[in-house]
Design a protein that fits this description.
The relative contact order is 0.16. Helix content is 41%, strand content 14%. The chain is built from 11 helices and 10 strands. Strand 8, helix 7 and strand 9 form a beta-alpha-beta unit.
């Protein structure tokens, strides 16, 4: 029988008594191509909502420094942030600079305001906070004034200031709006809530993204932690070993990645042992539809 997340963390903590916990190792994390370019990116990324919104004290930032270090060491690169997330952009920029990670990260952030000038000002501030001369992905956060900002982003993409552009949301009630944007506008990415507990996106939005050649970032993979809180005390099904899963977190992330439209999933964490666990979802076999159905049934039972 596989380990629960709690049991695995005890093992990692014990291993960490003499140094860092074991890394993913020689096995390379899976990558999927961005449809609009063919560029491959790792299938497990890192979100920063709530987790990276901390002050400047060394004690507050030390765990996040280790999260970022371990994330990159285990093959990660995609980091998603937003000016909405408090100090998160600045924390990412400062820690990345301190770790010498220039050129090793795929930096994604968002514009979250109304009006062209306000949008430009906010995005310029994001460049400064992230300490980046060019950003990999700029997204219109929650579709706020999306028509205005997409015009700016197309110009910036043409000039090389950003590499990709996209739109985001985190609630099922906005999926119809996201669908309309995808049908009407050429975007590289859509970011959407998708998990075994929030499956609405798979009805039309994910198939549409695949048909339109739009990369998908999956946010809220644990439904804001609710799934893991509910499943944490349950033993992992014995059959999880068939797709090399040791914890519920890995099983839930692999369930998401089993959908062919999903390019990258972006769980957020402030704990190094969690990022080590999450990154392992990018290794080994992904579930087919039969296995995905078993995972969904096990995760939602009771």
């Amino acid at each position: 029988m596989g380990l629960t997340r709690r049991a695995l963390f005890r093992m990692l903590a014990a291993a960490g008594a003499g140094g860092s916990p074991p890394a993913v190792g020689a096995q390379a994390i899976a990558r999927r191509p961005i449809p609009s370019s063919g560029e491959p990116i790792p299938v497990v990324g890192l979100g920063t909502w709530r987790t990276f919104d901390v002050g400047g004290a060394a004690a507050e930032r030390a765990p996040l420094r280790e999260v970022l270090r371990r994330f990159v060491a285990d093959g990660g690169s995609v980091i998603d942030s937003s000016p909405m997330y408090g100090a998160a952009e600045s924390v990412v920029g400062d820690l990345a600079a301190g770790l010498g990670l220039a050129g090793r990260l795929f930096l994604a952030t968002k514009v979250w305001t109304t009006g062209r000038e306000a949008g430009v000002s906010q995005m310029e501030e994001s460049f400064r906070r992230l300490r980046a001369a060019r950003l990999d992905l700029m997204q219109v956060h929650n579709l706020v004034d999306w028509r205005t900002h997409l015009r700016t982003l197309r110009t910036w993409k043409e000039s090389g200031r950003i590499r990709y552009l996209g739109v985001t949301h985190y609630t099922a009630s906005a999926h119809d709006d996201l669908e309309r944007v995808l049908r009407a506008e050429p975007v590289d990415f859509v970011q959407v809530n998708y998990s075994v507990g929030e499956r609405h996106a798979e009805r039309r939005l994910l198939p549409l993204a695949r048909d339109r050649g739009v990369a998908v970032l999956a946010n809220r993979p644990f439904a804001e932690g609710g799934l893991l809180q509910r499943l944490g005390s349950r033993p992992l099904p014995a059959w999880a070993v068939e797709i090399q899963c040791e914890t519920w977190a890995q099983l839930l992330l692999k369930w998401i990645l089993g959908h062919p439209a999903v390019t990258c999933v972006i769980p957020a964490t402030r704990r190094p042992e969690h990022v080590a666990d999450n990154m392992r979802a990018g290794l080994g076999t992904l579930p087919d539809e039969t296995m995905r159905a078993r995972i969904a049934a096990a995760a939602t039972a009771g």
